[in-house]
Specification:
The structure is a single chain. About 35% of the residues lie in helices and about 20% in strands. It contains nine helices and nine strands. The two termini are about 40 Å apart.
Amino acid sequence: MRPAILNPLFADITVLTGVGPKIAALIGRAAGPRVVDLLLTPPIGLIDRSFRPKVADAPEGRIVTLEVTVDRHEPGPKGRRAPYKVICSDETGFLTLVFFHARADYLAKQLPEGERRLVSGKVEEFKGARQMTHPDYIADPEKPGDMPLHEAVYPLTAGLSAAVMRKASAQAVARAPSLDEWQEPTWIAKHHWPTWKDAIETVHAPQRQEDLSLMAPARQRVAFDELLANQLALALIRKARVKTRGRAIKGDGKRIAIAKKALPFSLTGSQTEALKE
């Protein structure tokens, strides 16, 4: 019944890179065991990293992306559980990046002194100074693609990280084939719906909060297709069952006669009629 072009979508999620049995079990709890289940599990939130103020203008508690110069590293005293600090700045002020249980060699490579870096996370005020604890991203301004400006937030379960879920969902979207349009053209035009594949890609790549709305055209299209496909499948099953003839069972009465003879009483008129029926 299923077209061969859809078979990759109904494969087990272990076909995705980085998804072994353990991760598959976690994703199965959050979305389902098949690739198509990931496709039909839309994001529930959005992290927007496109806001890029200067250090002095960065509002406290909001996710921002700042371009700063790495001034110096300040490792904590040896033998003490002090945080590792990296002092950065732009033309408007200073920003301290704070790391706990840090690896100095890793941070020296990620944040070389004298170089410009993009850092993204929430800015906080601490003792009159601005700081960012464990930035979500650190990227080279010459490679802005290393830090996505918009991140979809998916439903998770205990032990399943947001990064793993995003990576698996992205692979599922990449496996989505281009399908011939199966909706009536005037119906599509009336609702301003994209193609099925474009709708899937848009649903999993929200750029603003409005894209998460159930009334967004892409989400409407995917939901309608899912509902219609389900109803068509049920209709085909019903049609196949109607065509199947039942098996008539007719006896010669011998076993009934033996059973009636074995009874210590005679059947009433109503009991006899019930047996005939």
